[in-house]
Amino acid sequence: MSKKVRVRFAPSPTGPLHMGGVRTALYNYLFAKKNNGDFILRIEDTDEKRFVPGATEYIINALKWCGIEPNEGESYGGEYGPYTQSQRLKMYAPYAQELVDNGHAYYAFDTADDLNVVRDQAKEMGLANWQYNAITRSSMKNSTTLSKEIVAEKIANGDPYTVRMKMPRNQEVKFHDDIRGWITVNTNNLDDKVLLKETGMPTYHLANIIDDHTMNITHVIRGEEWLPSAPLHVLLYEAFGWESPAFSHLPLILRPDGKGKLSKRDGDKLGFPVFPIDWMSAEGEKYSGYKEGGYFPEAFINMLALLGWNPGDNQELFSLDELVNLFSLERVGKSGARFDPDKTKWFNQQYLRAKSDIALAELIIADNLVPADTDKNHLAIVCSLMKERATFLQDIITDGDYFFNDIESYDEKTLKKKWKEQTPAIMEDLISTLEGIEDFNTASIEAAFSALLSEKELGFGQVGPGFRLLVTGKGAGPSMFDICSALGKDKVLDRMKTGLVKINAIKA
Ligand code: GLU
After folding, report:
1. Alpha-carbon distances of 348 from 191, 278, 342, 352, 485, rounded to whole Å
2. 264 catalytic, yes or no?
3. Which of 64, 154, 197, 264 is an active site residue?
4. 51 in ligand 1 pocket by Cβ < 6 Å?
5. pLDDT digit string (tens) for 263-318?
């Protein structure tokens, strides 16, 4: 029997979760569900300097809002916990020791000052990037250069040390990436990464692979920025004698102009969110989110799914269940996926249109976009009329403000171009016609309106714009017969009469 698929999303709580991170979580989620596996949330907080309070809670809430919740992990529990690395600290040092004991790692006693000195010297000699590696380690203070006795003495003395990976010289590291194929890297290009810091804290690399191993992770699916770390990870698995999980490195998400990676700062600069939900930094800087921007989580997720993966045909709209069914790593591309904010709006529009009128009304009420005592059924009628033109729920309320409020102003362009000398008289006739309707509904209003037009030999253009302007204040919108039916006879007549007085005054 093959092993149960177990994947993890392993963010570091260094700030809010960028939409690239959400996509990584989504692909992990889809892969897990598709393969009847587990989707685990692990918080990698070993970098104390970059820790940001509130970031873990943000990550958990963001995944919840997106509807891609882990079935195991931080705040979800499970057999492999704790799922936050700072709560697992005791377990890492013995593994680092094991690597020292079997010759794959060593103690390094160089202080930060020592390292700065060699770096500066290298710079003076014109070497841009000095690295602690298979060659330079022989001139540094570490357990490969110092005698056993001195090393033992230093440790007994409590001298600070780090544990570094003993990167082999001139060895080919070959591993398979499920998206990129075979990858070969020569170890001469890799440095002796710190595995255990002076504080006794593991670095990302050590904690990450120990946790992946001890949590029985079968597939590592993460962003392309971790590809350069993969050879070290492969070597660490080998050094421990562990089976390595399968690797997949997802393509970058590019800015809308295709020029470079979409960064945390781009969003508010370019006018679209890059975060799932709003985030307020400790400095009081606000980063806007899709949720507060009025996006449906289904639309956001649908858009993200297609940012790097494709179904192989032209279908664009997918429910989460459909995505689970169709998802495969083979259909994830290698090259960067360009983010398109307009397309994201299009997705929202599609999801908005697909919702029933009553569901839209309920969402509008739940989001407090209307006063709490708004009649749901009336609101549903408004939604039925406005939804074809709306991208966000808020548009229904903003563009359809005349369903809720009296008319304060009249569209200037329409007033100027369509309100003619004879319009007031025509409107008076229309008022009398509408007054005569007993059962005031879409069909009866339309019939009376058409009868008036033929009786007076008027074209639609002589009546329609004025009618709309008086009742809605606007120059365009859904069918006037539907609007009037939704507003009711009294309100329509009242608006037409007061509107006529106001417009006559404006025109005078
Ligand atoms: N903690 C890493 C991050 O913040 C995880 C990388 C990985 O998935 O291995 O993205």
Report:
1. 46, 18, 10, 6, 29
2. yes
3. 264
4. no
5. 888 877 888 999 999 999 999 999 999 999 999 999 999 999 999 999 999 999 99
